[in-house]
């Protein structure tokens, strides 16, 4: 793939701990890159990849579905219209039930397992979509699995505007994928938010509810690819690498606060 002159874009969907290696190899060979979440293990790896992409005039992006769903673009237009007022609080949940197999990619530290990089990246990306700026205050609690990776986490964030956000994650307790953004004049709720096509807005003054429907969940990956092709062709870049960087910075800070690193990171020191 790296050497094939007919290929313009390489999509990387290998385990997290191999992303940096393959991203950099693809970029060095002049390929645009769409990489599965989490795009890298940490901010340092992402900064290196961004620098390489910039030097080679290539598009680098994370395959984060919610950034490309038509629903979120429509919700942004509603928010920017002022109908909901100022943002105050964002809340997210993401809980999966994964059997305790410490050799699986979910729990194995050698495969960069753990809740934060696997499912937390969705919750934090949802939060970043609505916040007016990157969080500058980050606090988190963790429960480790037997293998040593993060099994559960509770995250509390705040940005410079005082907008608050929380995320609750678990790899061993099923939760609804529910996201909520609360504003002065109402709040919006989204279920199954990574690929959502519907949101409900409840207005504070009278309790009136409005359903916003847009796009199709089954087309989530297609929307992602369309935006990537548009970015590569120079017709406008909506891949939101800036949000990806902000989310990676938060995850890197969280793991540093826990004192938790992966083998690749420990070996690099």
Detailed description of the structure:
The protein has 269 residues and is of the alpha+beta class. Helices cover 32% and strands 28% of the residues. The radius of gyration is 19 Å and the shape is globular. The model has no long low-confidence stretch (mean pLDDT 96). Strands 4, 5, 6, 7, 8, 9, 10, 11 and 12 form a nine-stranded mixed β-sheet that branches. The chain has a three-stranded parallel β-sheet with strand order 1-2-3, with helices on both faces.
Major sheet = 9 strands, mixed
| Mean of residue pLDDT values | 96
- Shape, per Cα inertia axes: globular
Please trace the helix and strand order, writing H or E for each element.
EHEHEHEHEEEEEEEEHHH
* Structural class based on helices, strands and sheet pairing: alpha+beta
Number of strand elements: 12
Which oligomeric state applies? single chain
Low-confidence parts lasting 5 or more residues at pLDDT below 50? none
Distance between the termini: 31 Å
Brief write-up:
With 269 residues, the protein is an alpha+beta fold.
List keywords for this structure.
269 residues, 12 strands, alpha+beta
Give a topology summary.
Layout: E1 9-12, H1 19-28, E2 32-36, H2 43-55, E3 60-63, H3 70-80, E4 87-97, H4 115-130, E5 137-144, E6 150-158, E7 164-170, E8 172-175, E9 178-183, E10 186-191, E11 198-203, E12 209-213, H5 220-232, H6 241-258, H7 263-268
Parallel strand pairs: 1-2, 2-3, 4-7
Antiparallel strand pairs: 4-8, 4-9, 5-6, 6-7, 9-10, 10-11, 11-12
Helix pairs in contact: 1-2, 4-6
């Amino acid at each position: 793939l790296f050497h094939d002159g007919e290929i313009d874009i390489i999509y990387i969907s290998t385990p997290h701990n191999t992303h940096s290696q393959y991203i950099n190899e693809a970029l060095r060979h002049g390929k645009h890159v769409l990489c599965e979440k989490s795009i890298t293990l940490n901010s340092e790896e992402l900064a290196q990849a961004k620098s390489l992409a910039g030097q080679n005039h290539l598009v680098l992006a994370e395959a984060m579905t919610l950034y490309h769903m038509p629903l979120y673009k429509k919700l942004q237009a509603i928010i920017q219209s002022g109908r909901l007022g100022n943002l105050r609080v964002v809340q997210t949940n993401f809980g999966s039930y994964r059997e305790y197999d410490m050799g699986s990619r979910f729990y194995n530290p050698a495969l960069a397992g753990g809740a934060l990089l696997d499912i937390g990246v969705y919750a934090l990306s949802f939060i970043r979509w609505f916040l007016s700026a990157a969080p500058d205050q980050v606090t988190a609690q963790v429960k480790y699995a037997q293998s040593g990776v993060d099994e559960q986490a509770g995250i509390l964030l705040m940005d410079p505007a005082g907008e608050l956000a929380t995320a609750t994650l678990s790899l061993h307790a099923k939760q609804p994928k529910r996201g909520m953004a609360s504003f002065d004049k109402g709040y919006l709720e989204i279920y199954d938010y990574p690929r959502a096509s519907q949101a409900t807005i409840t207005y504070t003054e009278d309790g009136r509810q409005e359903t916003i429907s847009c796009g199709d969940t089954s087309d989530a990956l297609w929307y992602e690819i369309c935006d990537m092709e548009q970015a590569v062709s120079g017709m406008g870049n909506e891949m939101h690498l800036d949000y990806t960087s902000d989310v990676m910075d938060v995850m890197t800070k969280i793991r540093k606060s826990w004192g938790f690193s992966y083998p690749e990171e420990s070996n690099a020191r």
